[in-house]
TrEMBL record, chains A, B:
Keyword Zinc tagged: yes
Task of the protein: The enzyme apparently serves as a quinone reductase in connection with conjugation reactions of hydroquinones involved in detoxification pathways as well as in biosynthetic processes such as the vitamin K-dependent gamma-carboxylation of glutamate residues in prothrombin synthesis.
Cofactor requirement: FAD; Zn(2+)
Main location per the UniProt record: cytoplasm
GO biological process terms, semicolon-separated: quinone catabolic process
Alphabetized InterPro entries for the sequence: Flavodoxin_fold, Flavoprotein-like_sf, NAD(P)H_dehydrogenase_qn
Protein name according to UniProt: Ribosyldihydronicotinamide dehydrogenase [quinone]
GO cellular component assignments: cytosol; nucleoplasm
Gene it is expressed from: NQO2
Subcellular location: Cytoplasm
Membership in a protein family: Belongs to the NAD(P)H dehydrogenase (quinone) family.
UniProt catalytic activity: 1-(beta-D-ribofuranosyl)-1,4-dihydronicotinamide + a quinone + H(+) = beta-nicotinamide D-riboside + a quinol
Pfam families on file: Flavodoxin_2 (PF02525)
UniProt entry keywords in alphabetical sequence: Cytoplasm, FAD, Flavoprotein, Metal-binding, Oxidoreductase, Phosphoprotein, Zinc
Length: 231, 231
């Protein structure tokens, strides 16, 4: 939709990968709509995943005992967070929609993207206590996970060996995104592109592009245990 | 138990933290039993969490198109994985029990520990296709997650705002550990040490030490959806 701002947080090493294709069509379709798109290409940025003392510029509030959460919160308030964190926070702040594009690693995000969540979504910026879940600070923003899997849709069915795909979405969509207030749109899951035919891969990319045409009309999911674990 | 080998994968920045205390008593108690203990102190090692081309020494099997999973699998078979990965794989190979000691970050492990899982538990070493879940290559080993949380036990109750704590354990215990064949022992969850009294913290540390006295007699959990999501 014209005027909307979209941040794509992208975590794949290979530009010509299937994840790269999904990112590319998203940029094409959203640009066509007149959206402003920003991309955080985490591997290309060599984004730092580790949460360490380096994230605080200057003195710590307690040099004798390092508590990352406390120090990041204090540094956010004093504007003394490392610039790679504040750069990402600016991008999130300006975005109406944040799309996370990544391959599933161990039922979760790759470490480089987990580090983005650990470091960028700090207390004071994304939430406070109180000020989380429905009152999280990012509550006027949309978030969407676009995930590729190694396993097939059958493996990720309710009775599949890997359990329903909604199970592994809980920590990411509820524990992280909903906690920060994001309204979560339904995930875009592209199952097993590596064992799919070229035609099937093209169809998965096309369906993502197709969905994006009406993405601004979508209602967020009901981010409760029932959505994830209900029968 | 005398002769048993234990690997503790530890992910906290502050040695004097509550996580540090839990690690310390585990070393004390298991040493008393005559176990051999190895510790991977991830922050002290500045462990690399990013899964990149640097993980493969020498030529790639496909320099035109980087597929991390494929390249890591080929590098494992050709013994050309980066030494920080093979060093950890040796520690896992020798261990009878792997204890993961970490604070919960976004319903999951900190990125530095996620990177350990992403990079160390590669195809060929921890599993193959086929050769996963009950036939995963680490099937003769035990694994245990010792987790500290920010939220209280009430928040992580079935009807709490954060949902049952078993929900967030699914990707870690089933998707990663069980997939590699590990027999998973019940998690040790220390709820909200930061808001607990000194006495309560001491009691949590003591109960962990107490549990470790009989850890070798414990039966693994039934790593099925029922354990996580059953009523």
């Amino acid at each position: 939709m014209a005027g909307k701002k979209v941040l794509i947080v992208y975590a794949h090493q290979e530009p010509r990968s299937f994840n790269g294709s999904l990112k590319k069509v998203a940029v094409e379709e959203l640009s066509k709509q007149g959206c402003t798109i920003t991309i955080s290409d985490l591997y290309a940025m060599d984004f730092e995943p580790r949460a360490t003392r380096k994230d605080v510029i200057g003195a710590l509030s307690n040099p004798q005992f390092f508590n990352y959460g406390v120090e990041a919160y204090e540094a956010f308030k004093k504007r003394s967070l490392a610039s790679d964190i504040t750069d990402e926070q600016k991008k999130v702040q300006e975005a109406d929609l944040v799309i996370f594009q990544f391959p599933l690693y161990w039922f979760s995000v790759p470490a480089i993207l987990k580090g983005w969540m650990d470091r960028v979504l700090c207390q004071g910026f994304a939430f406070d206590i109180p000020g989380f879940y429905d009152s999280g600070f990012l509550k006027n923003k949309l978030a969407l996970l676009s995930v590729t899997t190694g396993g097939t849709a059958e493996m990720y069915g309710k009775t599949g060996v890997s359990g329903d795909f909604r199970y592994f979405l809980w920590p990411l969509q509820h524990g992280a995104l909903h906690f920060c207030g994001f309204k979560v749109l339904a995930p875009q899951i592209s199952f097993a592109p590596e064992i799919a035919s070229e035609e099937e891969r093209k169809a998965m990319v096309a369906s993502w592009a197709q969905r994006l045409k009406t993405i601004w009309e979508e209602e967020p999911i009901d981010c409760t245990p029932a959505w994830y674990f209900g029968q």
